[in-house]
Amino acid sequence: MFIVTAKFPKRRLFLAALCLLVLIALPFFLSHQGEGKDSGAVCVKTNNERVAYLRSLGWEVTPEPVETLSVSLPDELVEPYLSYNALQLEQGFDLSDFCGRTLSRYTYVVTNYPDRESGCQADIYLCDDAVVAGDIVCTGEGGFMTGLKFPDKQS
After folding, report:
1. Residue 130 pairs with which residues in a beta bridge?
2. How far apart are CA 112 and CA 119, in angstroms?
3. What one-character-per-residue DSSP string does 18-38 give?
């Protein structure tokens, strides 16, 4: 019986090991692509950062939230979450990415909604300090809900 032994140069062995490592690690990196700081999500860890975020969108708000609460999303979006998520999708958010998770909602009084002196609030929803949804609600006669974009004065 003959035994064949092959001699592999160290360089070729190293390259083979490196290729194997890349193949093993690639699915991990691809599955985490878009998470964290590079995802474009706005991170707001403090109240001052939340207020600054709303101001960056054109809103003047009270310096402290009037309400803070936790919202647990269901494992699958059903009404009224589906309708609310339609508004979120229009502004680049998607609550379906956070099904089964608990979000923090911060509500601020808006003091500069055009042609309204009172009754408007800004809600922002956070997951792990990242803004994942938001809205502007104006109550009273002719009340409505809209996205976070500041209204165009020409509309």
Report:
1. 43, 127
2. 11
3. HHHHHHHHHHHHHHTTT-GGG
